[in-house]
Amino acid sequence: MVTGSALGAVAAAQGIIEPTMFNAVVVIVASVLPDIDKRRSTASKKVILPIHLFFKHRGFTHSLVGGFIFLLLLSMFLKNMWVPFIVGFMAHIIPDMLTTHGIKLFWPMKVTVRFPFTCATGSIEEWMFSVMMAVVLLVNLGDALGL
Question: How does pLDDT run across 17-40, given as a tens digit for each residue?
Answer without folding.
Answer: 999 999 999 999 999 999 888 877
